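Hi all, posting the design record for the shared folder.

TITLE: backbone redesign
STEP: 1 of 1
STRUCTURE INPUT:
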């Protein structure tokens, strides 16, 4: 039983590392293609967190605070 648990844990860690590498690799390729403005990317991400219906109120409060601190465009929140 313990041996199977170790194998499963090792497989999950390996799968997580592969998935993380793939996400970072694809993100870098997309960033090199379109050359987005980092400020706009941060503002769009914060707006998506604020607009996400399942985010807790504490997370939304922090995202709104950062959104205001970065002087993001309020039209992104609609």
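Okay, here is what came back for every position:
SEQUENCE:
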């Amino acid at each position: 039983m313990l041996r199977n648990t170790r194998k499963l844990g090792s497989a999950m860690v390996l799968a997580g590392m592969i998935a993380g590498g793939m996400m970072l690799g694809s993100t870098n390729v997309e960033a090199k293609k379109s050359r987005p403005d980092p400020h706009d990317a941060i503002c769009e991400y914060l707006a998506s967190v604020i607009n996400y219906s399942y985010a807790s109120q504490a997370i939304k409060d922090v995202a709104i605070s950062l959104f205001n601190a970065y002087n993001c465009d309020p039209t992104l929140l609609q």
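COMMENT: Residues 50 and 62 are 9 Å apart (CA to CA).
Let me know if anyone wants the other runs.
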